[in-house]
Amino acid sequence: MDFASILAAEISKKRKTDPAPKPTAEAIPPKKYLKRSEIESQRRRDYESSQARLDSDRRAKSDQKRLEEEAEFQRREATKLKQKQLAETRRRKEQDIAEEAAAALKAANGGVEEEVPAVPGEMTEDEAITHLRALGEPARLFGESHTQRIRRVKRYLAAADARTEAAAPPLTEEEMVLDMKDVTVNDDKVYRQLAAWFTLVLREWDKALEERALAVKESFQGKAATRSMAQAKLYMGPLFQHFKNKDLKEELYSKVCEIVVEAQARRYVKANDLYLRLSIGNAAWPIGVTMVGIHERSAREKLHEKGMAAHIMSDEVTRKFLQSIKRCLSFCQTRWPPEDPLQLMG
Prior knowledge:
Layout: H1 3-16, H2 36-108, H3 125-134, H4 146-166, H5 173-176, H6 188-210, H7 214-218, H8 220-235, H9 237-245, H10 250-264, H11 268-279, E1 291-292, E2 295-296, H12 316-335
Antiparallel strand pairs: 1-2
Helix pairs in contact: 3-4, 6-8, 6-12, 8-12, 10-11, 11-12
């Protein structure tokens, strides 16, 4: 064989063989090294896929919450409608019963209606309605009984009286000044002066607290001062009620007048002494050991003498407004300081 035949045979063999299959993605070995751009692209794809999952979950939860809220709203509306229907049914039933009772009473009286007598000292239905219409209030409320209507009238009348009293011209600072020569028992003018002066002190106290800086208000001491003022104002409510009713006890009346006189004269040390004399007084206080063994000490029987056991601070209400008076004195010496520094309380 010559060289040409051998070459032709080899070429024919090559043409008959199938081409080698292309490698699949699984067969491609992973790269040993990756570019920074490829890493960034893969990170971005992962981030976008995670965000897409989160958005879909968020939308699903929002839709579920909206459906639950709509169902809850429909349930509440159905409950309100049912309650309204039950109330209307109950009202109609009570009205039918009242009409049947009135008809039965009328039939029993031979066709003559009998008026229900009013309770002595209590206003009738017509009077209550007349008062309400004169005050510009609704004459009847849904589900309101006759007793509740009378209470509503009395409440409105009491509020109107309070507004009338508040509309009275207030006293000036010169008119608030007390004079012990003019102080008599159950004097209307003195009671007005006491109420006006304590009102002035509380108003100035509140104003001074409001004028503080915000940082001072939010501090621990600032909040404590605000609570102290609010507590004093609350505890002095019974005292103002005594001023309004003019029924303060004689011993309290005289001592409170003396305290106010000294405070208005800016003699705060003397006012504090009067407060201590009023609050502590001369009552016997057990100090130390009063009984050892079976024998009593010689001073113990004084605790049980007439007038010694009872003390003015034993009454909780009196104790509270007396302590509030002491707080008012402490504020007064900062709001209206005395000319003599020796008159400042410790």
